[in-house]
Description:
5 strands
Amino acid sequence: MPNIEEKSLVVSEIKEKFQNASGIVLADYRGLTVAQVTQLRAQLRNAGVEYRVMKNTLVRRAAAELGVEGLDSYLKGPTALAFCADPVAPAKVLMEFVKVNKLKKFQIKAGVLNGKVIGSEEVKALAALPSREVLLTMVLRGMQAPLTGMVNVLQGPIRKMGYALEEVRKLKAAQ
């Protein structure tokens, strides 16, 4: 059993992870084989997500010290936490892993998004969001559409003048 100093060090480490992460997902990892856990950890690592199994009491204490409320009810049973600066990445990777491997027992318990606790349904909705790059593309496309329309409108009279001059040229050539 670790002593009080070791526990307080772990609590401060958890607090630091909570403060540095925009997105945190809590999951019940029961039902995974060793190979699946290894595969999951590799996928999370590639996405820049840190995945750790932590003691519920220490997570509860760290959350209480940071003022994160509503997490206690989710800290029952085996709990793994996925931390990342990107708020969507942990949810996306975990949900994709569950879907690809057709896991029934592995469950998303909850999440913490910018210091606020969200339920499993909100985490699933977060995972369904398009990637940051796709969202930026959509915004840019939305900004570009009116400009493209304006260019087409402004080119209209010039185009018509070009057609009129072409008709005048044809008439003069025919005479």
